[in-house]
Amino acid sequence: MAVDVERIQQLTRELLQAIGEDPERPGLRQTPARVAQLWSELFSGIGEDATAPLARTISVARGPAPDTLPSGAVLMRGIRFRSVCEHHLLPFTGLAHIAYLPGEQVVGLGSLSKVVETLAARPQVQERLSEQIADAISGSLDARGVLVVLDAVHGCVTMRGSHHTESSTLTIAARGDYREAAARAELITLITAGSPNAAGSAGAAS
Length: 206
Prior knowledge:
By secondary structure, this protein is an alpha+beta fold. It is built from seven helices and seven strands.
């Protein structure tokens, strides 16, 4: 379902009035239109099929270059994403790290980032986003294992209350072989190497 741009503009005007502002003053006249455009981008993933990018696969055994295809895990680190927390409608941003242990099929690396982008472009909570990414990959590929690690900074933590500006949140979702902590230990080490925000939390979460 497409975002209702006209309604967002109307509601933004009402919101400005509700906080005691004048939506007709020069600095705010274009704000409803800008907010509508922003929300169209932030929530573009609503109703979209996040598994669609995974439909085109490459055969490991019968692919065009089988000698270049992986015998172990495929790990893509540092996929930047941004989403909106559904509790306060404040942004959270961070890095997604995805690993999967291929069966007979692999996908282009850009497909993994597209899955993240689509699922993040909805009102979200980080824990659910991790699980949805893992489900999309494990449900679309014949992967023997899937691991998703998200490391994000939340506006509802850094901008509200005690303003913990330096804190980040780490979540882990695992499927198949990677449900076993020992099986994913090496990948967790590779993912968190050089990432001070993730290093301490990964040990606790694994």
